[in-house]
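Protocol step 4 of 5: obtain the predicted structure for the target chain.
Materials: sequence only (see below). No template structures provided, no constraints applied. The aim of this step is simply to have a reference model before the mutagenesis design in step 5. Sequence pasted as it appears in the construct record:
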Amino acid sequence: MGMTSGPTALITGVAGQDGVYLARHLVDLGYRVVGTVRPTRGAADRTGYLADVDVVELDQLDSEGFASTLEDVRPDEIYNLAGFTSVGASWGHAEVVAETNGMAVLRILEELIRYRDRHGAAPRYFQPSSSEMFGVTDQQPQTEGTPHHPRSPYAATKSFAHHLTVNYRESYELFTTTGTLYNHESPLRGPQFVTRKITRSVAEIALGLRTTLSLGNLDVRRDWGFAADYARAMHLMLQLDEPQDFIIATGQSRPLSEVLRVAFDAIGISDPGAHVHQDPALMRPADVVDLYGDPTKAREQLGWEPTLDFEAVIEHMVRIDVERLRSGVEEAPAYLFPAPDRARRRSAAGHSSPTDRSATG
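Step 4 output (structure tokens):
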């Protein structure tokens, strides 16, 4: 990677969806970016996205390795995007989730204190929190002050890490921020996530490779945005004069059935019903019916607005999955963003208020 005089950022989990979008955004801003990947995974499948990033191997549970990386990199900013990300799978791997999403964050925060003791200042730190922390809540939309009631091992560990990050800021005067990220999607979403499962299956149906797909609860509602927009918000949070916590969301709630409708519309099928099978085995032990966030604080204090609307995100994901199947090329930088003539921007469709829960179907 070429030399740069800009700031240095360390991104853990750089080969994940958020890591790729954030890394490329920071490189475009003139940052030197160093990103970590799991030793067992590597970044071979994402090499094309990370050409201007220094990639190093680091297990999220290796606290000594993190300390060594911190000393080698001397970053100005740290974005901790590594972790266990599947809500559904967390039920079967609760102990692993607790270590990866909870205790690993505690060890990072402790290391930041030691680093400051050695060097006089610590890097600014971003911790991604999750809307799943709110769980069962009677407050719609959720704000930065909404109490947590997590309903999965994943959500419980994210709540733990969130409160740790706040406490270490208040107790040790570290520059630590949390961004509570609502569902954010892109063609880089892993196939284990329901949105990508839908778009991939719909692409296969379009090409005659399958006829149906199986899903669990179609009534669950979420606030879905575009991953690149959420990565941009992460960077904005670390540029503030004082560290704060933010909700990053679109302010709209949509049922999973709406994701299906938009995805099937993208291939010219107006009635998905004949192609969708509801499987009780895919229901979670405890599910959260509805979550959507109020992004007012992010809009007013960060100047942040989502750029791509819900329909454009899902349609883009379907088009890219069709292209993957046709070409045999699973990863390509051209997949990251929709073509300008296909990107329906929120400004064109009209902004919704934070409490707009509009959904059709």
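Step 4 remarks: The first strand starts at residue 8 and ends at 12. The chain has two domains: 8-183+225-248, 185-223+252-292+309-349.
Proceed to step 5.
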